[in-house]
Amino acid sequence: MIDERDVSTNHGADAGTAAAIAALANPVRLRIIGELFEAREYVSELARRLQIGRPLLHMHLRRLEEAGLVQSTLELSPQGKAMRFYVVAPFDIRLTPASVAAVGKSIVLDAAVATTTRETGA
């Protein structure tokens, strides 16, 4: 499996589409979108629901936010505690064979990944 950290894109393709595809390629991030689609949530509760640690959740949320798929706000609880809430951002990604091909052609694989992919046929 190719991790999005192992690829970069040339500027010829739509960088937003490439970032969204890379972010959504991870099943944990798809689960996060699924949870946040129902209602906005703060990090600790979302981590409990997904049964993953907060540091890992923060990493996934950061990637989703960088791709423009979620948005966050910092709010104070009645007890004065700072709480970061996340919600699904409005997005509409249209995938056509041409748009996927443009993103695919723009991907520059890390040399180690390209070699491994060729050797294993994966």
Describe this entry's structure for a reader.
The chain contains six helices and five strands; from the N terminus they run E-H-H-E-H-H-E-E-H-E-H. The longest helix is centred in the middle third of the chain and has 13 residues. It has 122 residues and is α+β, with helices and mostly antiparallel strands.
Question: Could you give a short description of this structure?
Answer:
By secondary structure, the chain is an alpha+beta fold. Helix content is 52%, strand content 18%.
Features:
122 residues; alpha+beta; Arc Repressor Mutant, subunit A; three-stranded antiparallel β-sheet; two-stranded antiparallel ribbon; 6 helices; 5 strands; disordered N terminus
Arithmetic mean pLDDT? 82
Terminal Cα span: 8 Å
State the CATH superfamily name.
Winged helix-like DNA-binding domain superfamily/Winged helix DNA-binding domain
Q: Strands of the largest sheet, in order across it?
A: 2-4-3
Structural class: alpha+beta
The largest β sheet comes out as: 3 strands, antiparallel
CATH topology: Arc Repressor Mutant, subunit A
3D shape: elongated
CATH class: Mainly Alpha
Share in β-strands:
15-25%
Q: What is the tally of helical segments?
A: 6
